[in-house]
Amino acid sequence: NECEKRKINLEMPVELEAVFTKYYYECMKIEEIAEELQMNPQTIKTRLRRGRETLKQILLKEGYRSSEIEN
Questions:
Q1: pLDDT in tens, 16-60
Q2: What is the distance between the alpha carbons of residues 7 and 58, in angstroms, rounded to a whole number?
Q3: Is residue 47 a contact partner of residue 20, using CB atoms and an 8 Å limit?
Q4: What are the CA-CA distances from residue 60 to residues 29, 39, 42, 71 (Å)?
Q5: What is the pTM of this model?
Q6: At 20, is the secondary structure helix, strand, or coil?
Q7: H-helix or E-strand spanning residue 45
Q8: Is the CB of residue 22 less than 8 Å from the CB of residue 36?
Q9: Nearby residues of 43 by Cβ (< 8 Å), 6 or more positions away
């Protein structure tokens, strides 16, 4: 649900949220995000990895079990 997405994103650091949102919600490719944000594609990959790690921690804090969260 859209409200849950916003809540999760609000708990992410801004630099991770921007990349995470563009990749997962706007379906942009890594190269497109890198060009738009004027960053190295490897930086985008790193931020996506950190965003996924952050999301996992948020979900665990919200009561999800590790087995329910895909790696």
A1: 989 988 998 899 999 999 999 999 999 999 999 999 998 888 888
A2: 10
A3: yes
A4: 28, 30, 27, 13
A5: 0.79
A6: helix
A7: helix 41-61
A8: yes
A9: 34
Is-contact 40 34, C-beta < 8 A? Answer: yes
13 backbone dihedrals φ, ψ, rounded to 5° = -55, 145
Which residue type does 21 have? T
Residue in 58, 69, 60 with CA at minimum distance from that of residue 8: 58
Residue reference for tokens 């950190």:
50
Cβ atoms within 10 Å of 35's Cβ, excluding its own:
13
Question: What are 46's two structure tokens?
Answer: 């790193």
Contacts of 68 (CB under 8 A, 6+ apart): 59
Q: Which two tokens stand for residue 48?
A: 């996506």
Radius of gyration of the chain from Cα atoms? 13
